[in-house]
Design goal:
binds nicotinamide-adenine-dinucleotide; 7 strands; Rossmann fold; about 260 residues
């Protein structure tokens, strides 16, 4: 991708699934990369794996804690030299039927991680970039669940819908500073998150889902989404701003 080599990149939730693949892709593009994750063991394993590919460092961070998010952004900036790219990726999900089961505490947790956490990382990064007089690219992780209401995911759907409006709001305010802000909406991607969810369901849930709902007839892999992160971070996307990029095998094109 154009202009990516040498960039300083933060990938939040870079210890697993899509974030881990994104960190690897940014290393392959010649970036200096900093990852954060929620679990110390997963962070150590990811750093060891990615360390073979390039210049990588990271720390544990719970993005639902505003101060931890600010500290992680500042540590990333120090570690990578000059941070200019943020893959704002950390997120959680689980099924919970709206009518019978969805609890206020669970609603609050999803919002605290998926929406407020994304705001905390993004605001800290934007403030740092503006202070430093640096242009940059912030990519917020939404979902096809931001574009339609999947059953049993009212809490998750709502958090990701909020991410789209956060992205558009940031694009309006940060564009004049040369900070591009975009959102990615993956469909069904084969990651530990989805493997856990599908593990509790009968049969080959992923293949059935692909056959019934995805025109390309396969679920995505983390590398499919990592490529979108790399594109939106690069100079190839120099005029792409406030956009919503679906990476879903055509799922949202279905009527
Ligand atoms: N897998 C999919 O099908 C899919 C589809 C659309 C969007 N997404 C989104 O992509 C992102 C990554 O999902 P994934 O499937 O790779 O999941 P994953 O569970 O494999 O990875 C999640 C990452 O987020 C981190 N994380 C979780 N809670 C955190 C917290 N409180 N603070 C900081 N980090 C935290 C984890 O440490 C991990 O690194 C999420 O935002 C998810 O909502 C996933």
């Amino acid at each position: 991708m154009m202009g990516l080599a040498g960039r300083g990149v933060l990938v939040s939730g870079g210890t697993s699934g899509i974030g881990l693949a994104a960190a690897q892709r940014f290393l392959e593009e010649g970036c200096r990369v900093y990852i954060t994750g929620h679990e110390p063991d997963a962070l150590a394993a990811a750093l060891e794996k990615l360390g073979k590919r390039g210049e990588i460092s990271g720390q544990v961070c719970d993005v639902s804690d505003h101060q931890q998010a600010i500290a992680a952004v500042e540590a990333a900036d120090a570690a990578v030299g000059a941070l200019t790219v943020v893959a704002n990726n950390a997120g959680i999900s689980w099924r919970e039927p709206f009518l019978q089961q969805l609890e206020v505490a669970h609603w609050d947790r999803i919002m605290a991680v998926n929406l407020r956490g994304m705001f905390s990382v993004a605001q800290a990064a934007a403030q740092l970039l503006v202070r430093a007089g640096r242009a940059g690219s912030i990519i917020n992780m939404a979902s096809t669940n931001a574009l339609g209401g999947e059953e049993d995911y009212a809490h998750y759907n709502s958090s990701k819908g909020g991410v789209l409006q956060l992205t558009r709001s940031m694009a309006v305010e940060l564009g004049p500073y040369g900070i591009r802000v975009n959102a990615i909406c993956p469909g069904y991607i084969d990651t530990p998150l989805n493997q856990t969810i599908a593990g509790g369901l009968p049969g080959d849930f992923a293949q059935r889902y692909a056959n019934e709902r995805i025109p390309l007839r396969r679920v995505g892999n983390p590398e499919d989404v990592a490529a979108a992160y790399a594109f939106l971070a690069s100079d190839d996307a120099a005029f792409v701003h406030g956009a919503v990029l679906a990476v879903d095998g055509g799922q949202v094109a279905v009527m």
